[in-house]
Write a structure and sequence with these properties.
Length: 149
């Protein structure tokens, strides 16, 4: 890496892995002028492609998943940071298995994790995701949830 001041070679003083950002941070020093600077190396990953019900494809959008979860978790004891972590974990899990994933698999993965966090939020999310249209559907879903526990 060349120095941004004199364009001579530099040496690495310190390297740190920033796991949340999937990035390597390096502190460097110019061999010639002594200027210190920091560089970041980001590991390039392929984006997760979502296959919608209509067959249309789009990039996974964390904010869409968070929006739905925030509604389901309204007035529940779940922090926004917990929801962000849930979405990141789901994205990471699915990226490890797929490059293109059907939207229903994302919803099911989120529901599975949400069930362990908060049962009321789970039922709320499931009612929208699975398009419940009557009380009997709610009751059946609660029975399924009880069996899983």
């Amino acid at each position: 890496m060349q120095c941004p001041v004199c364009h001579s070679d530099s040496k690495v003083l310190d390297t740190r892995w920033l796991e949340e950002e999937n990035t390597i941070r390096r502190r460097r020093e110019c061999i010639k002028c002594g200027k210190r600077f920091i560089t970041y190396e980001k590991i390039e990953t392929k984006p997760l492609i979502v296959i919608k019900k209509s067959g249309r494809k789009e990039l996974f959008d964390e904010s869409k998943a968070l929006k739905g979860l925030a509604k389901a978790c309204e007035k529940r004891p779940i922090s926004f940071e917990q929801l962000q972590q849930l979405v990141r974990d789901v994205e990471k899990e699915l990226k490890g298995q797929y490059t293109e994933v059907p939207v229903h698999l994302i919803g099911e993965t989120i529901m599975h994790r949400l069930m362990d966090m908060d049962e009321v939020a789970y039922v709320r999310f499931a009612s929208v995701y699975k398009e419940f249209d009557d009380v009997q559907t709610f009751i059946r879903e609660i029975e399924v949830m009880k069996e899983r526990k």
